[in-house]
Amino acid sequence: MGSKEMLKLMLLESNKLFREGLKRLLYESGFDVCVEESTLAGALDGLVINENLDLLLFDPCELPGQSDGESSELYLQLRRAAPNTKLVVLTTRICPQVFGTALESGVDGFLLKNMSADALVRSLQLVMIGEKVFPTTLAAVLVSGGFGAISAARTAHSMKGLSDREIQILQCLLNGYPNKLIANELHITEGTVKVHLKGILSKINARNRTQAAIWAMNNGLGASPSPSA
Fold first, then answer.
1. pTM of the predicted protein model
2. pLDDT (tens digit, 9 = 90+) per residue, 103-141?
3. Which end of the chain is more exposed for a tag (fewer CB within 10 A), N or C?
4. Under 8 Å between Cβ of 132 and 208
5. Looking only at Cα atoms, what is the longest distance across the chain?
């Protein structure tokens, strides 16, 4: 790597053989796995001791004592322990619960273990320059509304005081519509769409359109092929 500074990384993974192989692979590409942990407790301690880690790469579905990566508490604990560290999921499990929870929790990337070594390295490099990286297949399902309702408990939630128009806009988000297309479909101006979006984000405590779409799916709205005014 010459004089280029190595990026410091923690690898949180229960499989020791996988950790060792990935550590060698990443080192050749400028990522120094300086901390390895196999449990959440160990990772939390390691994050406190090693305050200057650039990235945490972990599989939430393989950690002992965790509920298959579906609990947001795992992400909250990691974020509290390392507020300035990039969090990237690397897992074999593809399901809406795990993906949705990871996105809602604000991870910087969600990657799959069946990707190529080159793709993994490029993805981590993108994360380190501030990009959000997710599998194309999962992102496509997300915006199409193909996940459907996540659970009966979540679909029973109230609509947070949303108006009929705001619900229509959320359904448009599930279709992946940009503001201009939403405005055309609902026969309103783009400015009005922006005002509604701001209100929606505030009511459901979402930070962006993606989180709003996830909230809509989790609450059983579903995508609407052709919203009406």
1. 0.61
2. 888 899 888 888 888 889 988 998 998 888 876 555 555
3. C
4. no
5. 61
